[in-house]
Design goal:
oxidoreductase; 3 helices; seven-stranded antiparallel beta sheet; Pnp Oxidase, Chain A; mainly beta; Split_barrel_FMN-bd
Length: 158
């Protein structure tokens, strides 16, 4: 029943990236990401405690968040896999502030780990924002009722 309730909540889709100490990029698609604080500027992201990306974030203390646009469901799916393939293959990216930055994201955040909080089968990573940059004006990619979609502003709100 709880999963059904949560499926009816639209959530933004983002990709978390980090760079291992041996210069290997890793990343994961997440739908549990939110702003946390304005003073100081902080975000939170929730990762499965078995996640390789979480393991590297624990080691390095740094991560990037990439807010995806509505046309990036394929990218979200490729980073959602757990089978160890090179998720960055065929994706345009570069190193920025020591972390992998995906070129196509509609917004990007670089963060340093402030704390980690256990949350059942996930770990909530609290991050101090080191840089934040909108990179496009795409409609957002959201996850709702187990499918990807988008949200468009109401015509009266522009």
């Amino acid at each position: 029943m709880f999963k059904e309730v949560m499926a009816s909540v639209a959530t933004p889709v983002s990709i978390v990236t980090t760079m291992s100490d041996d210069n290997l990029p890793c990343g994961a698609t997440v739908s549990a990401f939110a702003s946390l604080s304005i003073d100081p500027v902080m975000v939170l992201v929730s990762l499965d405690r078995r996640s390789t990306t979480l393991e590297v974030i624990r080691e390095t203390g740094r991560f990037g968040l990439h807010v995806l646009g509505a046309d990036q469901a394929g990218l979200a799916l490729s980073f959602a896999t757990k089978n160890g393939i090179d998720k960055f293959h065929g994706t345009s990216w570069r190193i920025d502030r020591g972390i992998p930055r995906l070129s196509q994201a509609s917004a990007w955040i670089a963060a340093s780990v402030a704390d980690m909080v256990d949350g059942g089968d996930h770990v909530i990573v609290l991050g101090r924002v080191d840089a934040a940059e909108p990179t496009g004006r795409k409609e957002p990619l959201v996850y709702f009722r187990r499918t990807f979609g988008t949200h468009s502003p109401h015509p009266g709100n522009s």
